Amino acid sequence: MNIILLGPPGAGKGTQASILVTERGMVQLSTGDMLRAAVKAGTPIGVQAKAVMDAGGLVSDEIVSGLIGEKLDSMAASEGAIFDGYPRTEAQAVSLDEILAGRGRTLAHVIELEVDEDALVERITGRYTCASCGEGYHDTFKQPKAAGTCDKCGSTEFKRRPDDNEETVRTRMAEYRAKTAPILPLYEARGLVKRVDGMADMGDVSAAIAKILGS
Ligand code: AP5
Q1: Residue to mutate (ligand 1; options 22, 34, 59; most atoms within 8 A of CB)
Q2: What is the structure's pLDDT at 201?
Q3: pLDDT, tens digit, for every residue of 201-215?
Q4: How confident is the model over 55-81, as pLDDT tens digits?
Q5: Ligand 1 contacts CB of residue 96 (under 6 A)
């Protein structure tokens, strides 16, 4: 099963994708994570993407669609894909159709996480991750069980994303409204869109998604 998680920055796409990876063995394809890895490794794509990401803009369609195609090629046909943060433009949505068709895959659902944008700034500016295993935390909504120690791997090092400041978040939201939200009608016309209340408790959001995906 291949699905898209759609929603503005901080809607909970990464949080829910990681739950689906753990609970269903699906594979998370986050273009944001792929780009951050390229920036960290200093690859030509990373060098090109860094300034755009730091400013909250969108990296070129060709780059992100290329990354998605490569990642899908490394997956077994039996593994389901969760597209997290992709597609983000109409051109990317068209590319995704071609990429999937070329690999004999189809889209089962486009799950839109509906959220109140004003609450997202708090979600994003309070977010941090384990520097060792990448487990996500939040100053208010998800703290480690033992303060300062990662629940998953025991590391005491944490990090925050450079684009998780209020000014950049507002730019990212404007980009979402202008370029990403308009792709929803394309999927609505195909009957693929399912809506979930992304402002609900994390567990309730997961339960709503599980209901859509079935057993
Ligand atoms: P990307 O990494 O995709 O960032 P984003 O879309 O802005 O999404 P986020 O990761 O910020 O949010 P999320 O929805 O995953 O929320 P999360 O689960 O972490 O992209 C970064 C940049 O890369 C872009 O700006 C762009 O430059 C570039 N890029 C990436 N893909 C691209 C593409 N396809 N095309 C072009 N450029 C691209 O949750 C946020 C916080 O809230 C967490 O702390 C979490 O614990 C908490 N939380 C989650 N759910 C709940 C809940 N239900 N209740 C309370 N708290 C919650």
Answers
A1: 59
A2: 94
A3: 999 999 999 999 997
A4: 999 999 999 999 999 999 999 999 999
A5: no
Single-letter amino acid, residue 49: A
Nearest atom in ligand 1 to the alpha carbon of residue 126 is 44
Cα 71 to ligand 1 centre (Å): 19
Ligand 1 contacts CB of residue 14 (under 6 A)? yes
Query: In b/e form, how buried is each residue of 97-124, taking b as 16+ CB within 10 angstroms?
Result: eebbeeeebebbbbbbbebeeeebbbbb
Higher-pLDDT residue of 31, 117: 31
The tokens of 100 are what?
Answer: 């999937």
CA distance 102 to 124: 36
User: Can 127 be counted among the known catalytic residues?
Assistant: yes
Check 142, 161, 194, 195 and give the catalytic one.
161
Residue among 131, 126, 125, 123 at smallest CA distance from 152: 131
What angle do helix axes 166-175 and 117-125 make, rounded to 10 degrees?
140
88 is annotated as an active-site residue: yes
Yes or no: say if 172 and 147 are a contact pair by the CB < 8 Å rule.
no
- Our answer on whether the CB atom of 8 is closer than 6 Å to any ligand 1 atom is no
Distance CA 71, CA 112 (A): 23
How confident is the model at residue 117, as a pLDDT? 86
Ligand 1 neighbour 82 (Cβ under 6 A):
no
Tens-place pLDDT, residues 137-186 = 999 999 999 999 999 999 999 999 999 999 999 999 999 999 999 999 99
Is the pLDDT at 113 greater than 90? The verdict is yes
